[in-house]
Amino acid sequence: MSDLHCPATLLLTDLDEQTSGLAGALRGARVAAVYASDAAADRAGSIAAELGVRSTIVAGLEAAGERFAEALQGIADAHRGETVLVSTDAAVVGREVPRLAFNVPTDFAAGRPAEGRLVEVACDADGWVLRSWGDERLDQRTP
What we know:
By secondary structure, this protein is α/β, with parallel strands linked by helices. The protein has helices at about 20-25, 40-50, 65-80, 90-100; strands spanning about 10-15, 30-35, 55, 85, 120-125, 125-135, 135.
């Protein structure tokens, strides 16, 4: 990641079941905003209120393929140098994020992220880097 701007850090989660304690766990991350698919809007709004940031619904976060990539790219472009929480369907995250990131190891079996776990990706002009998948750090592994 060599461009002059800091990467945007996106913390992806589904917020389906595990919302208690998430805001407290994210306070140290200095989350600038919360974005959500329409299906996750209520829970995302609650987390945003606890964090004291705004919550925005973004079309395409629940979709697969190019629509998902475009939605994430738009969020990343608006938040260079910041960290944001993105709530969407875990199955979509499991399919799409490994396709976007250039550092996913060949032996990585993505699948659906564990319930309540965050998937961390960074984006800048050089592309997407998968930093972590739940508790597993990936940004230090060799693809």
